[in-house]
């Protein structure tokens, strides 16, 4: 699995897409990954890839796939904390005891996912853009 991950990243970086198109696609994928629509994120990322023309579609879909089951509790907690700060102006306690609690927590989680997705999406665009440019410059220097 790690070899496939590494191969996908390498193929994205050496593609003919610009650094901005790759990093923008990845950032949009990160934003979608923060949305609490688990099970539908792949569908959302494919729709975004179809609708948004000037991004690397593979990077966009790839980024949403990074939100694996062991990452989801951290993202949900972060989204809930942010959403409760926005809604209630305080940090609320996150405790699910039965299924009706899930609906109660969904509103702050959804509300918190938007600023968190935007923040981490923009950070990933900036960081990935710089990394891709560094790798491409290094590769061009070694090829000459």
State the order of secondary-structure elements, H for helix, E for strand: HHHHHH
N-to-C CA distance: 33 Å
Broad shape: elongated
Provide the gyration radius in Å: 17 Å
Global mean pLDDT: 89
Strand content: under 5%
- Number of discrete helical segments: 6
Largest sheet: none
Structurally, the number of domains stands at: 1
Low-confidence runs (pLDDT<50, min 5 residues)?
Answer: none
Q: What is the structural class?
A: mainly alpha
How much helix, percentage-wise, in residues? Answer: over 70%
Number of DSSP-assigned strands: 0
Write the layout of secondary structure elements.
Elements: H1 2-13, H2 19-34, H3 41-51, H4 57-64, H5 72-88, H6 99-143
Helix pairs in contact: 2-3, 2-4, 2-6, 3-4, 5-6
How does this model look, in words?
- The chain is mostly helical and 144 residues long.
- The protein has one domain.
- The protein is 76% helix and 0% strand.
- The chain has 6 helices and no strands.
- The protein has helices spanning 2-13, 19-34, 41-51, 57-64, 72-88, 99-143.
- The relative contact order is 0.16.
- The mean pLDDT is 89.
């Amino acid at each position: 699995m790690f070899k496939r991950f590494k191969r996908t990243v390498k193929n994205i970086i050496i593609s003919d897409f610009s650094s901005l198109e790759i990093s923008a696609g990845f950032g949009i994928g990160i934003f979608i990954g923060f949305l609490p629509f688990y099970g539908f994120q792949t569908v959302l990322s494919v729709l975004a890839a179809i609708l948004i023309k000037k991004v690397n579609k593979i990077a966009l879909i790839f980024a949403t796939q990074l939100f694996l089951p062991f990452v989801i509790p951290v993202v949900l907690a972060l989204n809930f904390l942010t959403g409760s700060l926005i809604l209630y102006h305080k940090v609320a306690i996150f405790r699910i005891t039965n299924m009706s609690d899930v609906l109660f927590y969904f509103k702050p989680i959804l509300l918190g996912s938007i600023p968190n997705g935007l923040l981490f999406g923009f950070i990933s665009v900036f960081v990935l853009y710089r990394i891709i440019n560094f790798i491409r410059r290094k590769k061009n220097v070694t090829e000459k």
